[in-house]
Amino acid sequence: MKFQPDRSDAQTISGYGPGWIGIEAEKITTSVIIGSGGKRIDWHCARFEDLTPAHFAQLAELETELVIFGSGTRNRFPPPAWLAPLMARRIGLETMDTQAACRTYNILASEGRNVAVALLLEAPSP
């Protein structure tokens, strides 16, 4: 799917498909954290099962009001104990499948919100 967002100064996701997202003309095929202020950080996990508490501690280090977690091809939730670092910093976390996370991030970023999205980009099934 290709997006045609309203004019926004925030970094936005221009498209997505199985195992990839697009930011402007760049195609990204590995899990990534994107911030509305321009941050882009590799997120070292290839499958939901690879996630650890350290991945969510990394999200707590972001200076943001909300993190949207794109959990892959379907909506899956991390164990609540893993979210303690986010709660300690009063950072909200919303979980949804990766495609919905892309759309939600674009809407919030275009509104000028200080938001980040952590996208789990799983390799497509053969």
Word description of this protein:
This is Mth938-like domain-containing protein. InterPro entries: MTH938-like_sf, NDUFAF3/AAMDC. Pfam families: DUF498. It comes from Paenacidovorax monticola. By secondary structure, this protein is of the alpha/beta class. It has one domain: MTH938-like (Hypothetical Protein Mth938, Chain: A), CATH 3.40.1230.10. 21% of the residues lie in helices and 25% in strands. The protein contains three helices and eight strands. The strands form two sheets. A five-stranded mixed beta sheet has the order 5-4-8-6-7, with helices on one face. The chain has a three-stranded antiparallel beta sheet with strand order 1-2-3, with no helix packed on it. The radius of gyration is 13 Å and the shape is globular. The model has no long low-confidence stretch (mean pLDDT 91).
